[in-house]
Amino acid sequence: MTTHLKSFVDIAPDSDFPLENLPYGIFSNEQNTQPRAGVALGEWVVDLAALEQKGYLKLKEGQQFFNQPTLNAFIESGKANWSKVRAELQTLLSADHAELRDNQELRDQVFFKQSDVTMHLPVHIPGYTDFYSSKEHATNVGCMFRDPKNALLANWSELPVGYNGRASSVIVSGTEIVRPSGQIKLPDSDRPVFSACRKLDFELETGFIIGKPNNLGEPIAIENAWDHIFGMVLFNDWSARDLQQWEY
Questions:
Q1: Which member of 4, 97, 120, 137 is catalytic?
Q2: What is the Cα–Cα distance from 137 to 156, expressed in whole angstroms?
Q3: How far is it, in rounded angstroms, from Cα 33 to Cα 224?
Q4: 3-state SS string over the chain?
Q5: pTM for the full model?
Q6: Is it the case that residue 127 has pLDDT exceeding 60?
Q7: What are the residues whose beta carbons fall under 8 Å from the beta carbon of 161, sequence distance 6 or more?
Q8: Which of 120, 124, 92, 105 is nearest to 32 (CA)?
């Protein structure tokens, strides 16, 4: 039976952020408007930049990884450092570890209510590839764009089908978006018209953040994948279906 970790912070049983999770993010607040790294714990954000400044979470002498506007520097430091920081945080935040638990002054500098902070895009994304990972989803899209009898192309079951996405369009949750405009071919028209999208859709997707690159021409073996994957995120992929259908 798995032993559950217990923190000195009260965490609701149904919380998405127990001590076992500690997801990373970039945040700011009224006291400090500089975006910096933190992790979620229950209803709180734990300020990693503040801990780093106090001498914790040290990875490389003279270099700051968490007093940064993105997580990229930490991600690029490699899996050994990811594991080291997570283990140190779980120890520091555990119920039987007194160093932070009994230091109220330090806790006041480190803990902030999630409701009082502003979250920012956590990583700089130079590029991403969008894959069809679900047969059902690929079939639905194929039915929209082709004859339903030929919804899936012959390559679907043989290789991962993916395409490059527009990295600059990745935005943090809550950002207002503008309905895209483009050419739409209406069923009763001979030619397309320029119009705002009338069939705006979204797909709930998972994204994997690659933290360690490989050299050109050097493939990554599947058993070594976790050396390169920093973590996973959830996001909504907005799609202008009527524009897609005509452009496709």
A1: 137
A2: 12
A3: 39
A4: CCCCCCECCCCCCCCCCCCCCCCEEEEECCCCCCCEEEEEECCEEEEHHHHHHCCCCCCCCCCCCCCCCCCHHHHHCCHHHHHHHHHHHHHHCECCCHHHHCCHHHHHHHEEEHHHCEEECCCCCCCEEEECCCHHHHHHHHHHHCCHHHCCCCCCCCCCCEEEECHHHCCCCCCCCCCCEEEECCCCCCCCEEEECCCEEEEEEEEEEECCCCCCCCCCCHHHHHHCEEEEEEEEEEEEHHHHHHHC
A5: 0.88
A6: yes
A7: 131, 132, 138, 153, 155
A8: 120
First to last CA, the chain: 51
The label of the residue with tokens 């899209």 reads: 141
124 is catalytic: no
Q: Confidence band (pLDDT; 50, 70, 90) for 2?
A: low
